Each structure stands twice: as structure tokens, then as C-alpha cells.
Amino acid sequence: MPNASDRPVFRFAPSPNGDLHLGHALSAILNDEMARTAGGRFLVRIEDIDGSRARPEFEARILEDLDWLELDFERPVRRQSEHLDDYRAALDRLEAMGLVYPSFVTRAEMKAMVAEAEERGQTWLRDPDGAPLVPRLLMSEEEAATRIAAGEPHALRLDMDEALTRIPAQARSFAELDEGGNPHEKPCHPADWGDVVLARKDAPASYHLAVVVDDAAQGVTHVVRGLDLKRSTEVHRVLQDLLGLPAPRYHHHRLILGPDGRKLSKSEASTSLRALREGGATPADIRRTIGVD
Ligand code: GLU
């Protein structure tokens, strides 16, 4: 067995805003299996910075489901809400580099801008998740400072174009492991994401910022998660390079789809592990259903 510090580190990082479903089971089981095979560690991280959606009771239910699946993760688990200072420090660093600006654009204003452009027959650029890119509106530093001082809600965004001038060429790709564990360099096009949010109006850090800070803080060497997050990795590589953090290796696994062909959602109770368990399913049944028995 290698030294603790040399051992690969895997993590499963659920958000406690609902019960785990079959897709989460696949992620958690793959992390557990890959960690075992590699003689590595398996960590669980609770991504609970979204105060409007995260609930402690869901955290307890998630841990109970993972125990029921007989997954061997280390305790205590890391909770993002206990590490807000770490995200603030990363944000301060990016701010000191001149890469962060406040954005006051509201959802309603965005909707109106997109609708107006589309009425004129223009196509509004969208990010890889399909969300319209939010433009940087011209504003003097004084105006921004006055609006912030007046308490106007705002997000903090990364100046992506400027950020891309500061990082070396290797941040434009990441190592993706295939099913056999062989690495392939995947090219990145982070500019497609536009000026991503780093801190939200209602949360002190965005998913992108927190995940990058946490993976480094926890010494994560392997990020195993669903294919729906594969393009987010392009943003994560940029942030890792700007912040001088090591880049883990990635494996983005297939998604479990519902009968309607869409990816599963926490809001549909029928495929939650809890509902399946209450209906008499065993952990072996779950593994069989998702093709990992
Ligand atoms: N918290 C994210 C989710 O539940 C996963 C983040 C990650 O694995 O990077 O979708």
C-alpha cells in the first residue's frame, strides 16, 4: 500500500437538495470501485453553499443511502458551508489579478434582452448548458461602487477573455480517463461559457469556484462524475491554472436516463434510491439496474 499522501483520492460530491437517484448511485459506486482498484481513498463532499435549496435533512438521507449501498467513504465528510473563507480567499486572489467584475443584470432583464434580439431575428449566444450568455454592460468603476454601496444585489463574474490571456496553453485541455483507465487529452473551449459566475447574488461562491477550491483542498486526484458536467471541466481547468492549483484527472461517466429519455432529476421521486428501497429493492438490485453488478 503506498503512503497516504501518494494514494489517489476520489470523491463523490452531492448537493443536499433532494434524495439521491440511480444516476447518483452510479457515480458513487464508480468512485468507490475505482478508489478500491487504485488503492486510493474515497471522500464524500456535501455541496451545500446554495442556502436557498440545501437542507440538512437531505444530507442525512444522502449519507444513509450511501451507507445502504455499502460504500466505503471516509468520515467526517466535508461540507462546503463550513469553508466559505476558502472560497473568499480564492475570489480575492482573482480580484487582485483584475479578473473579476460585478454584474447587476437581473434574470428579467436578460429575458427581455434575449427576447428583443430574437424578435429582430438575431441569435443570442448560449453557453454549453443552453443558458444565454450574460453580456458585460459598460459601467464606470464609480457607478459599480455606488451601486454596490447602495446594496444592489449583484453577482461576481470572471472576465473570461482576459483570464485566457493569463494562462498557459496546457490549461486548454484536460486528461480524461476512458473506461479502461487510459488518459486522453481533451481540448477545451472555455470561452464558450462566457464570463462565468464566481459568486452569486444569493450564495458566496459559485459551483465552479467552490468545486475547484475543494478538489485542491482535499487533494483530489481523480474526479469521477456524470457526462453532464464534462464541459464544466473546461471552466475548472481555467480556474485551477489561474489559482495555481493542481489539475486532477477526470472520468465523465454515462448518464442514467429515465423512461422519457431524459436525465434523472431529484424532483422525480420514482427513481430515488429511497423509494426503490422502500419498494423492496436491495443494493444488488440497484447495481443490476444501472449495469454495475
Ligand atoms: N454537486 C454537483 C451535483 O450534485 C456535482 C459536482 C461535481 O461532481 O463536480 O451535481
UniProtKB/TrEMBL annotation:
Q: Name one Pfam family in it.
A: tRNA-synt_1c
- The EC number on file is 6.1.1.17
- GO CC annotation terms, alphabetical: cytosol
Alphabetically list the UniProt keywords.
Aminoacyl-tRNA synthetase, ATP-binding, Ligase, Metal-binding, Nucleotide-binding, Protein biosynthesis, Zinc
Gene3D superfamilies per the UniProt record, alphabetical:
HUPs
Q: Where is the signal peptide?
A: none
Please report the stretch or stretches of sequence annotated as the Glutamyl/glutaminyl-tRNA synthetase class Ib catalytic domain: 11-283
Q: Which GO terms describe its molecular function?
A: ATP binding; glutamate-tRNA ligase activity
What's an example Gene Ontology biological process for this entry?
glutamyl-tRNA aminoacylation
The UniProt similarity line reads:
Belongs to the class-I aminoacyl-tRNA synthetase family.
Protein name in UniProt: Glutamate-tRNA ligase
- Tell me the gene name: gltX_3
